[in-house]
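Review this today:
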Amino acid sequence: MHASLPDANTLIARLADAIAPSLAPDTLIVGIHTGGAWVAERLHAMLQCSMPLGTLDISFYRDDFSRIGLHPQVKPSSLPLDLLVDDVLHTGRTVRAAMNELFDYGRPASIRLAVLVDRGGHELPIRPDFAGLVLDVPEHQNINLSRLDDGHLTFSIA
């Protein structure tokens, strides 16, 4: 991990602090598999949400599916909604795919977006409502979130 980057748990706590003032009692949180689901799980616990946590696998909704292919294992989706969570916002294609899937289930009253890291390079007009960190990352580098065996989340730039 780059020495100047805060750890993932610090960023998740920062996100929770930013979200808490606007949190309604019936806020529904949905995390995008895989990293977004991990972040959403932590936020759900920190914010002490009473509604169930939802998860979303957008594999079949990507417009670049033919280029990136199918991840080795498709996860089931579970869809209550108010706050959509992902780990890294880059081009906006993952969020757009998630929104397409959500609309297939019905029109949500609103969607707010929380991301652990907004790395720039947006190709679509999608911006987060909440970001743990805004970071300018060169196009040739990736930000990777991983979960260790003990559940600790870490991210790196490669």
Observations:
- The mean pLDDT is 86.
